[in-house]
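USER: Fancy drafting a protein?

ASSISTANT:
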Amino acid sequence: MIVTYVIYSQNYGFRYVGITKNLKKRIRAHNKGKVVSTASYQPLELIYTEEFKNYAEAREREIFLKSGKGRAFLD
């Protein structure tokens, strides 16, 4: 399974949308500062996930969640 996920930093009001095959490992990497785009926004909490059968579907959903309508959906 491929997971599209959203993490959020309450301290900074920052939201990040991504894709992974191993959600636990990826969230740990975010919170250990190993992901450059989120390193300065710790701590991060997982707020939303969706599972997909293939990468193309997950990527399509990621693009939607990063769009204006997707951000409104997450709000």
Observations:
- The radius of gyration is 12 Å.
